[in-house]
Amino acid sequence: MTICLLLIGLFAQAQTTRNFTINLTEKGEANMVCFLPEKPSGRAIVGIPGGGYSMLSNTHEGTQWSTWLNQQGIAYFVVNYRLPNGDRTIPIGDVEKAFRIVRDSAAVWNIQPRNVGIMGFSAGGHLASVISTLSDYEVRPDFSILFYPVISMDERVSHKWSCINFLGKEGQKDAELVRKYSTQNSVRRHLTPPAIILTASDDRLVPPVTNGVAYYSAMRNAGNDCAMYIYPSGDHGWGVGPWFKYHDQMLNDLGNWLNNLPAPKADALRVACVGNSITDGHGIEMATKYGYPALLQNMLGDGYWVKNFGVSGRTLLNKGDVPYMKEQAWRDAQAFNPDIVVIKLGTNDSKPQNWQHSDEFKADLKQMITTLRPDLAVAKKKGKKAKKTVAVKPEIYLCTPIPAFKTSWNINDSVITNGVIPIIQEVAKEYGLKVIDLHTLFANESDKVQPDGIHPNDKGVRRMAEIIAGVLKEQ
User: Fold this and answer.
1) Structure pTM?
2) Of all helices (H) and strands (E), which one includes residue 176?
3) Which of 54, 65, 149, 397 is deepest in the core (most CB within 10 A)?
4) Residue 428 near residue 398, CB atoms below 8 Å
């Protein structure tokens, strides 16, 4: 037995080039144990052990994962977070700090800062899902691995003590708090990172149907990338333990998922697609893969990194019924630090209840532009024509809305043609921006929209992607 352990230790050393610990709090109540691989792939995973928010199971759900992950070239960081005792901000803050450290140190540790995932177990899976759905973009993981996760904070359908320890007894009485931190309710289309969920059908501690399956369903309903593996048996808490009957199969499933998970090139040009339901992909099944931004990514290739920040029903007008600039997607688009922004808004602004504020459309469009490019606002104040330099970004493209072939939802093509588009063109000229005239190019393309006459169908989103890709490549 001693010889076997020695051989395992030697093998682990051959895969891990550095192992050290970083304190996350001044006195070390929380820390992060770091395992850097001998041959780094650029990928990293932040591990969150389970323990019902009452202890940390940080061996088979923590440090023992280092050997296998380092073999894959993945840097691994185990967060020994402080327990909440009813104050959820404590463990959340520890994990967010760990993410900041990993991304801030990415160059030193041979990590691609936008290829950093999270891996959580049981209550740690809940914490991982909280960070994946509710944390700001800067500390949100790029992918999530959830082992038999607690997802619901409703103790009637979840692990009772995880719920009480995380929210506190008083928090359990707050229905809105329970709903918010039952993270299947916090999944956001395009914004919540891809996930893999691994659990056992006979788990008696954390019911899979109301937890892991609920998260998978929310992800799939949002059209986000998600996979789920439910093993016939194993109960709860197996982690990387060799006693788990499906241990080898589980590692193979996880390895295949990771190997097929796309990651952007470090020097890829970042393209943010900002817009309403047409950008979001309304009516396009699995828009994350088949909407226009996803097709744009395929057409541009890996020299670009395209992200979809579209939100259905949103207006450019800040006094519209649902303003885009009040959305998390808008905050995320800015935090994405894009090199290129493609803005396609204005369709919902044509509705009567929104266009009554038409005199503010120009100012709101300028606000969006100058938020992305403060240098343009400075130039206008000085009475000078804005000059784009290589160092200034992003490059902003304004799209005109595609035609409204029907008046569905009171969307009015006459307002789009005679009101929205002239303002877009005027502002673009004022700031020296490129206009992509989708309205004209789609004028005779009614076969490329869905029966509602508003949203592009599969042919339409492909046509949009082709037009925009052509313009971006031209520039």
Assistant:
1) 0.92
2) helix 175-181
3) 149
4) yes
